[in-house]
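I can't quite decide. Please look over this sequence plus structure tokens:

:::
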Amino acid sequence: MPHFSVAQTVPIGPPVLREASLRTDTATYLLSRNTTLVQGISTLYFWFRRDDETVELRLCPANGSSTKPLRLRRNPDFQQLDSLTREGDGSFRTRLKFQNLTSSRFLRLVVEQAADSAGREPRREVVPLLLLVYTALALRVADNELFVGEEKAF
């Protein structure tokens, strides 16, 4: 009987990405460093502060010598603000504006690269995202006096 590990995923072909990064106004999150397993799938996590967070996305193709550009598939959870442009180091850069992050449950980026020969399906790589939110609570009570034996519930 074959043994399958929950933490392993089966590649569907050669990888499209060597690296991916999300840069917010406070930090940069890399696919190679900032991942965790969520239900056995390696997932890129990032902290966000606002429900409509804007990030810079950089995608580094696995095959740097390929002339085929990368493409980001549309998703209702974000709006792509810029076209995906090639930078001098061979990576592709764009900005994304997320929409309603607190209610997004299965957020992911789908990156495509056209096939090397005509008639073939484009190569795809899915980058699942795990959203981490900063939460703070401040309790301001007008009457904060308590006497021995008294209880107050807030």
Notes: The radius of gyration is 21 Å. The chain has no helices and eleven strands.
